[in-house]
Amino acid sequence: MPMIEKGKISSLQLGLAMYLMIGATSTLIVPAISAKQAKQDMWISPIWGALWGILCIFLAWKLERLYPRSTFVEYSERIVGKVAGKAISFVFLFFLLLVIGSIIREYEEFIILAFLPNTPMAVVVAGIVMASSFAVRSGLEVLVRFAVLFAPLFGLLLAFIFLFLLPDLDWQNVRPVLGYGVMPSIKGAIEPIAWFIEFFAIAFLLPCLRNRKSGLRAGLGAVLAMLATMVLAHLTCLLLFGDLTADLMFPVFSASRFISIADFFSHVESIVATLWLLGGFVQISMWQYALTIGTAQWLKLTDYRPIVFPLGFLVIAFAKWVAPNFQDMLAFFLTTGPVFSLLCLVLIPAALLFIALIRKSFGSGN
Amino acid sequence: MNGSARRSGMGLVLALLVASSIGLTGCWDRQEVNDLALVMGAGLDLSEDNKLELSVQIFVAKQAGDQQGSAGGGSGMSSGTAKEQTTVYTATGDTIADAATKLQELLPRKVFWGHGEVFVFGEQLAKHGITDQTDFLMRHPGPRLGAFVFVSKGKAKDVMARPSQLERNISEGLREMAKSQTGLRVNVKELMQMLKSDAGAEALPLVSINKRNPESNQSPFISGTAVLKDGKMVGQIDEYTTRGIMWLRNSVKESVITFKPAGSNGFVSAHLNRSKVRLIPSIRGDEWSIRVQISSEANLIQNESGLDPLEPRQANRIQEGLNDEVSDRIESALAEAQRKMDADIFGFSDTFRRSYPKQWERVKKNWSEKFPQVRVDVSSDVRLKRPGFSGK
């Protein structure tokens, strides 16, 4: 079957796209949740998460090596047969819907809480989904160019928040490092892990890579960049707020509100939120792209463009359905979310790889 | 055929763009500056019937504009208007949020907290407890964690009502005074951290109204420290001892110390900068102790002692006197806060927790019993660097 996506991307584009696809939300709520368990060791938690990210990149890469130029939806059918493959892909696509819903919801809650308390949720959500739908319709090559534009901005933004806060940071807050053993930092890693295993989404981009050999390196590079970003974001919160981080909803944003240099460089949170949303736009578009291309392959369509907007509507609905309110959204991130992620992004792919390796070694695979 | 399809596609895009302009104006949350009442600072008091009395200082933008407009021909307007650009409104309610809602009823403009740089707790409220009130400061999206917090002698309302002679208004004045660090400097974030810490004690700058000046400029100033335990004010510390507290909290930026060196009967004043304080905890068996290591540089600014600072042996005596004086100040702060009030406002608890996490876990429940027994050794290393312009 010919590929639906005609575009080809470079390894740098792949790396930056993956970085924003996972990373942009990782600095909103995650530090607060890590802080609740890990306290002063919260900055270590992303390191445990990154190990899972590497595992997921490896899974996706290995599967694509075995079934060149095909995505998760395509090779799952070839590995476990048509019916079982379709069923697995359906669960996976449904999971993608849920992921996009929760990502958009997280942004929406942040925007409404911080800036637009009176604006209806549907307007905020529809606004970004409309933009991302147009982006998805333009194809992968356009999407990754957005990533190349905005990923450095996003990384710089966090670096600047850290730099501008330097006078207020108290390095004593990191002590005692591992003073209560490694367990607190591992417990605090639940949320970073839930974010890092999303790196399996690279399975939808690898087939379009111009030079297939560089896929693994680009993926691992993205994991490392994301690790650096998360450690920096966690450190910023820890050094500025200490134990108070756990009590804040969006600690990195609160930190950006704290910036005040020489009396005139202050109140910069609008700029911060704007840059944040640019990253968020790429993130949402990338996930929506994965959902669209996957659905098109699942339905064996010859073109994915006609279903971009219908799926966009579904995404808007899911952003609302994912949780009735903020506290349920948080509960979702801590309970259902990670479990569902672990199932779809680690266990199912690992099982598929296992079966595929057995079939290949017995020579019955094509 | 193809052309018309493309044209209709362009039409669709255009229609969507036009439609989006309706949604993207942000009509629901439109906030015009001329519809806002900018809160510059707020005072919180306990009213007589145990309710919360909120006094906000609001920036009067109208007057600022008028003054410019009448600059050409105004005769009686010229005096005073430049300073009176704020006004104070007071409302009472069960909580800050409730009082702010009542306040909104008094105002034609929407209360906007984003520029509130100063929060002053009245003495009565501080004694009653401030923990509940701080929740608003953190939960509401308006107030900033970087705003400074004070406790006032007497009512906070009286502080907010005072004019500032040098700054635009008293909120700005208090903010500048906090930043210059002549007394403690505590912002909302630091207050929340103190309230959350295991120490169980908080220190806030105490503001009182300067009665020494003539009536016209009796503006508030930072006159010492209010000591709180678990959010309730238990005592106050005067200006002299506050310097000792600031040394221990490593928040001395610069200071002037005046003392009599041993064996002379005149005073010496020295200006100290580059001050650094390290707290080094140690636990030996059951005995907990902290070594306070101070390093600083001093320049002479007045010398009536008859000692010659250019002569090394006599300069040493001045330097010894300096160190004794700094140690004395710290001693007096310890005597007040550690032995009299049993309030760990120096962050000793964090110091121990960071170096001895396991031992700390065992003691933290009984910290208020352990804290007065902690032995503190002060080793001051202030070095006399320059004698100033006079070579006498």
Protein described:
The complex is a heterodimer of chains A (366) and B (392). By secondary structure, chain A is an all-alpha fold. Chain A has a single domain (11-347), classed as Amino acid/polyamine transporter I. Helix content of chain A is 70%, strand content 1%. Chain A has helices at 11-23, 30-38, 45-66, 72-80, 82-114, 121-137, 140-165, 183-187, 190-196, 215-241, 251-258, 269-298, 308-321, 326-334, 336-361, and strands at 260-261, 265-266. Chain A has a two-stranded antiparallel ribbon. The longest helix of chain A has 33 residues, at 82-114. The two termini of chain A are 14 Å apart. The model of chain A has no long low-confidence stretch (mean pLDDT 89). Chain B has 392 residues and is an alpha/beta fold. Chain B has two domains: 32-64 and 79-237; 240-392, 2-Layer Sandwich (GMP Synthetase, Chain A, domain 3). Chain B has 13 helices and 13 strands. Chain B has helices spanning 2-23, 61-69, 96-106, 123-128, 131-139, 156-161, 170-180, 188-196, 239-248, 312-340, 348-355, 357-363, 367-370, and strands spanning 36-46, 52-59, 86-93, 110-112, 118-122, 148-152, 201-209, 220-229, 232-237, 255-259, 268-284, 287-303, 375-386. In chain B, the strands form two sheets. In chain B, strands 1, 2, 3, 4, 5, 6, 7, 8 and 9 form a nine-stranded mixed beta sheet that branches. Chain B has a four-stranded mixed beta sheet with strand order 10-11-12-13. The longest helix of chain B is centred in the C-terminal third of the chain and has 29 residues, at 312-340. In chain B, 38% of the residues are buried. At the A-B interface, helix 6 and helix 11 of A face helix 1, helix 8 and helix 11 of B.
